[in-house]
Each structure stands twice: as structure tokens, then as C-alpha cells.
Amino acid sequence: MDPASQDINLNSPNKGLVVDQSDSLSDVPVEGAVGNSANPLPPGLTEEEAEELRTELTKVEEEINTLRQVLSAKERHATDLKRKLGLSPLNELRQNLTKSWQDVQTSNAYKKTQETLSQAGQKTSAALTTVGTAITRRLGDMRNSATFKSFEDKMGNLKYKVVGPRGNGDVVSSPTDTTPTQENPPF
């Protein structure tokens, strides 16, 4: 059995069997292949010009492949240099973010936004100060009112009745002298 005629595709149901070479696709013309006579030349283009263009195309494709190889080699070299310098992708990202943040901070839009927010903060602070002052004044007025004084007197009398004369900061013990616990809450 000739090894060249064996089917070596591991997914093939004919694995290891001899393949008939008469069914080979090597004689089948490929559409769009160079030199294919079935592909007519564009109008106004001679066979000689077409051959010249094909040759030029081949050279350009070879140059592209060469440039890809050179670029790949340069990228590997740059990676090696960065590794030797101790530059990691994380450090590069950190540097890029720092530079981007500095660029943002120096932009006109950022400066205008910062200025606007600063002014808004100052105005909000001033408004809250005014509201706080008004509330303090109103509470002071309310405390000096007859209604509040009457309420304060009633609360003082109630405290005196509950705590007694010792209620001026002295510790008053409970009737049972026990400390409140979860089972015995003080309320």
C-alpha cells in the first residue's frame, strides 16, 4: 500500500483506506486563477499589459509580506527592550491614563465645568447658610414665645413629679435596682 494514496484525515470515515487518485481535484481549473484562460481580459488591456500587472501585483504582495515580517520583528524587539527596562503593560496603561487625565484637566471644557461647579457649590453653601440662620432665628423666636414657655414649665413640673427633688444631675435608681436586659427592657 502506497502511503501517498492513504487517507490520513483523522475525521474521515475512510481513514487508513487507499484513496482513488482519479477523483483528485488537481486537474479542476480554479476560477480567478492567474493564467486562467476562462478569465477574459478587461477591455482595452492587452495580454502583455495583463502579464505586467500580474508581475507587479506579485512584487507588491511580496513587499507587503516582507514589511509584515519586518514589523513583527520590530514589535518583538520593542517588547524585549521594554521588558529589559522594566516597563510592563500595566505601567504603560498607568502612564497613558495619567497623561490622558492631565490632558482632560488642561482642556477648556474641563476648566469651564470646574468653574461652573465651583460657583454652584458656593451658591449652594450660601443658600444653606441662609436657611440655617433662618431656622436658628425661628427656633429662638419660638423658644421665647408664651406657648413654648408654658410647655417648658409643664415639662419641668412633670420631671419634678417623676424624678423628684434629686433630678438635678443626681443618679436616680430604679425601684427594683436591676439593670435592664434584653428580657427586661427599661420601657
UniProtKB/TrEMBL annotation:
Entry keyword set: Coiled coil
Record flagged with keyword Nucleotide-binding: no
Signal peptide: none
Coiled-coil stretches noted in the UniProt entry, renumbered to this chain: 50-84
Classification via InterPro entries: TPD52 (IPR007327)
GO CC annotation: cytoplasm
Region (Disordered) location: 1-46, 164-187
Compositional bias segments (type: Polar residues): 1-14, 171-187
Family indicated by similarity: Belongs to the TPD52 family.
Protein name (record): Tpd52 like 2b
Annotated organism of origin: Seriola lalandi dorsalis
Lineage: Eukaryota, Metazoa, Chordata, Craniata, Vertebrata
